[in-house]
Amino acid sequence: MDAISWYALGRAVADPTTIDEEIDAKILTHNLDGSAHGQSNEAIFLHRAQSVLDHINYSIYNIKLQPICRPFKAICDLGGSGDFTTIQQAIDYVNLNGGGKVLVTEGTFNLGADLTLYSNIILQGSDKELTIVDFGDSWYHVKAIGTSGSHLRNIEIHDIQFKHETNNEDYTIEFTYVDDAEISRNKFEDCHDSAGNQNITIYATSCVRFLAEDNYFHQCDEPFVIDSCDFAKIQGNRFESIYACILYLMASTNCFFRENLGNNLNTSSITDGTVICNTSYSDLLIDANNLHNVNELGIWSEDGDRMTVSNNTIEGGASARGGVSVSGVTKSVFSGNRIINMGNTGIDLYFDCNDNTITGNVINGTGGYGVDIEDSSDNRNVIVGNALYGNPSGAIHDAGTGTVKDHNSS
Fold it and tell me: Structural domain tally of the chain?
């Protein structure tokens, strides 16, 4: 069938005839046409009796059938069944047409250059086990980079596996000056520098409203670095066999790290903590995470205000140190945590920690104190209602000033 336009048919946008009715009429006319494909081949001739045409996608062009108006503006398929065979070509096309969704079908896409994202791009894989981006141990990575005066916006990545990004201190995904970004349901496999340096899987800096949710990280060095961001949410992710910290957060505000599950963490002791927060952060929530086989400090924090560490399970591995260790932290709450089998103190306030509350925690089987207020510079801290059992150095050590201790059991 020759391509025709909706308007050439005399159809206005408000015409009561539906698109399906018009397509059905064209199919009927086509099927009744004995010369539609010629009769030299019987199989081709019989095609005219089929109820659906194999080339209907472009047989009627109108504003509802054109590629720019499909749910996916571009389809990337290695076998040539889509619009493009490389992911960057598909992204560039969609970007030139105002943004939208790029579908990346099943297959392994080997990168030969950086993959660059722009505003209003949604990169959608078929499945994180089937759509694979293989970096091949190269320096290449996925990047979306705006400027301080012109942020990129509305970028998403879903249901893709990224693997073998293993070069020294590189990034697998880098978002800089990006607002309203989402990375969800992806898999990151073997993003690890075998030379013992720290390869960062997801690096977000100077971003606003960044969400990373329901991703799976396996044999990665450092899954997240969040730097100078506001309203970043890292939630519902799974971490397995991680060589360094799972989160390094600095100079950020109003951020959440919650409901994540980790096992066999910080196995190379490249960094001092499994979750690290420092450099003038504020209003940070670390809540309801389950961190098992922790082989360093569980949570290490310094120079921050208004942090809430609540309802976490932190369980030590073979080379575990303390559960939660902080310095220069003020107006923060540590409550409802379960800290077990750590190699040193359960909760440790080192120095310059003021006006903090430690309440309702269960701390047992550590290698030191249950709670340790280490220095006279630690002022007006409250330790109330904790269960502090089986800690060989004692339940509480208090060298602070104006500490309130009450209703703790040991």
Answer: 2
Residue 298 covered by a domain = yes
C-beta separation of 233 from 213 below 8 A: yes
Please compute the mean of the pLDDT values over residues 12-41 and round it to a whole number.
Answer: 61
Residue 261, pLDDT score: 98
User: Is residue 206 classed as helix, strand or coil in its secondary structure?
Assistant: coil
DSSP symbol at 409 = B
H/E run at residue 354: none
Q: How distant is the alpha carbon of residue 108 from its chain centre?
A: 21
Identify whether 65 is part of a domain: no
198-215 as b/e: b if 16+ CB within 10 A: bbbbbbbbbbbbbbbbeb
Residue 45: count other Cβ atoms within 10 Å of its Cβ.
15
Within this chain, do residues 33 and 110 fall inside the same structural domain, yes or no? Answer: no
Most confident of 57-61, 81-85, 335-339: 335-339
**How far is residue 112's CA from residue 399's CA, in Å, rounded to a whole number?**
58
Looking at per-residue pLDDT, the higher value among 219 and 70 belongs to 219
Q: Quick one: 53 and 84 in the same domain?
A: no
- Domain extent, residue 22, equals 4-60
Q: Is the pLDDT of residue 4 over 50?
A: no
- Residue 341 CA to residue 391 CA, distance in Å, equals 9
DSSP string, 73-127: SEEE-TTS-SSBSSHHHHHHHHHHTT-EEEEE-SEEEE-SS-EE--TTEEEEES-
User: Which residues have a Cβ under 8 Å from the Cβ of 399 and sit 6 or more positions away?
Assistant: 373, 374, 375, 376, 378
φ/ψ bin of 98: left (φ > 0), alpha (ψ from -120 to 50), beta (otherwise): left
Query: Binning pLDDT at 50, 70 and 90, where does residue 192 land?
Result: confident
Global pTM exceeds 0.90:
no
Residue 41: helix, strand or coil by DSSP? coil
The token duo for 270 is 């490249």
Q: How many CB atoms lie within 10 A of CB 159?
A: 19
Q: Are residues 282 and 222 in the same domain?
A: yes
Contact 205, 229 (CB under 8 A): yes
Provide the sign of the torsion angle of the four alpha carbons 358, 360, 366, 367, taken in this order.
positive
Direct distance between the N- and C-terminal alpha carbons of the chain, in angstroms, rounded to an integer: 84
The residue among 351, 388, 385, 338 whose CA lies nearest residue 368 is 388
258: which 2 tokens?
């919650």
Boundary-marking domain end, from 34, 60, 86? 60
